Amino acid sequence: MTVVHYSCHAQASRAERAMKVPRQEWEGATLRNQSTKCNNLLPIRGPRSPAHMYSEYAERYWATLSQLGRHEGSRFRMVVHDVRLLLLRLASGASFALDSGGGSPLSNVKLLPYLVQMGYYCLGDPSTTTWRHANASFSQRSSRSAAPASAAGHGAGGVDGPDFNAVATLWFPERWREDRQQLLFSLVTAALRSCPPPAEGEALGEAEAVFRGGRAP
User: Fold this and answer.
1) Following DSSP, what letter does each residue of 17-64 receive, concatenated?
2) How far apart are CA 12 and CA 195, in angstroms?
3) Mean pLDDT in residue range 10-26
4) What's the sign of the alpha-carbon dihedral 137, 90, 149, 196?
5) Within a 10 A sphere around the Cβ of 96, how many other Cβ atoms?
6) pLDDT at residue 60 is higher than 80
7) What burial class does residue 61 get, using C-beta atoms within 10 Å of its C-beta: 0-12 exposed, 13-18 middle, 19+ buried?
8) Integer Cα distance of 189 and 157 in angstroms
9) What pLDDT, in 10s, does the model give residues 23-56?
10) What is the pLDDT of residue 167?
């Protein structure tokens, strides 16, 4: 993770546009970011940062993001998936540099507190429509997860699956306290479903071997 003040980024971008061979904003930012691709600035609210300033730069973040492509669902849903995918790569040992050309696991995991911060900004307080909708959606997904395997299995491979539900509890800790047993059961069930079935005539094996097949490398 590279931390840069927005005014420094803007000043460098202006200077690069005035060069004899001008550079585009994110082309220059990539060079300054040790050749790791970047196309946005995630704001960080410090202890002395006023709320209105964080809100201003958060809106710039989402405005830039909207220019990169279409997305479905709320901003909060996108943040949950960003955290989910980050944790999935970390847990599975997948490369963080595959898409961006750089970035270590340690560098990327440092983003987590600020993604959680952005998630709280997107949610607002319990009186907002976004918060109420997210809480209601979480309840509906938890109810589906609690259904019998024959009924719940059809949605197990959806985008907002058990791992999404588990990550969403970062913003709804009371849900973790109430539903953690069911959430963990759903995660284990999803992992076992991803295991290759035993060959014909082959015994399923010991429980330890079965769980080893569903474990991240």
Assistant:
1) HTSSS---HHHHHHHHTTT-----------TT--HHHHHHHHHHHHHH
2) 50
3) 89
4) positive
5) 18
6) yes
7) middle
8) 11
9) 898 888 888 888 888 889 999 999 999 999 999 9
10) 94
